[in-house]
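Internal ticket - ligand job 345, zinc ion:
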Amino acid sequence: MSNEMKALVKARPEPGLWMERRPVPEIGPDDVLIRIRKTGICGTDIHIWNWDEWAARTVPIPLVTGHEFAGEIVELGRNVEGLSIGQRCSGEGHLIGKQSRQSRAGKFHLDPATRGIGVNEPGAFAQYLRLPAFNVVPLPDEIDDDIGAILDPLGNAVHTALSFDMVGEDVMITGAGPIGIMAGAIARHVGARHVVITDVNPARLALAAEVVDVVPVNVTDEDLKDVIARLKMKQGFDVGMEMSGNQAALDQMVEAMVMGGRIAMLGIPPGKSPVDWSRIVFKAITIKGVYGREIFETWYKMIAMLQNGLDVRKVITHRFDVDEFEAGFAVMRSGKSGKVVLDWG
Ligand code: NAD
Ligand code: ZN
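stdout (structure tokens):
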């Protein structure tokens, strides 16, 4: 193995990412070294590419970016047990501390000291990634590298979708981005009745309808009240998943919920946004904020569902060789894609 690798680096405080030669990471006693095979481009990576205010505040320069990956273990730290060279894997990109009350209670995803690969720490857009063995998630043979590379955002969708019981319930999803669409697939898989997904982008709604059996609604020209009547629903939606980060979408969701409805909120509004709290109180609505994936319960459930018929493959709309990463980012930034996967060869 040469000591150098290709990596997509945030090298300068301006829009763009740059392919550079970097040293292969050295691993510690509790780490593994993973040879990356496929990576997914995330909305977060677009923020980092664009170098918006959040990225400038959060990301140290220079940094190897990327956090959605599938690969193969090529080196084991001396304390690592239960993993082997050649094991195909994905992994949890949130590096947690083990000192907090939450971690010591086994609620690793609630550790306040969490740091993200590709955001705060060197990431997966590289030929090799160093990862604590604790974070590794082995992939069964049925889950290929393409799906392995999107388990991080699928995990966001699974975490959100399993927040509230959806069996026999009417479910509304705002935002038909890749995560909203995958959440629709999960809602179907676990036995929701009606699954309605909203967006303002016709291309995204068309993709949603192609990937999963959902009712797509373009809220720029269709009224949700008409949709509720058409589906012969009596009151409104029992469970909501906010996956757009758009303030208007949350307002519409609250309006379309039943009394006592439950909303899981994954979407991240830009800065502070006005909320009609009295409406939420008088409708007795529960809102749960969702961050990341439950470590590792979400991963367990996600893999089990994939082995049992959950199909999200069509949400991957574009594949590029990593040397064409600029084309991959361009299609992702156009809003006309689902997930974009880069092949590291
Ligand atoms: P995305 O940006 O690809 O999709 C968002 C979709 O919302 C877009 O298709 C957009 O057209 C649509 N939208 C905009 N305005 C709308 C409106 N008024 N009504 C309905 N839809 C509207 O994002 P994604 O990658 O699918 O992620 C979904 C959200 O989850 C984003 O806000 C993202 O920042 C957030 N996120 C949160 C976490 C977390 O841990 N909490 C993790 C990953 C992503
Ligand atoms: Zn991501």
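Auto-summary: The domain at 156-289 is CATH 3.40.50.720 (Rossmann fold). Residues 178-190 form the longest helix (13 residues).
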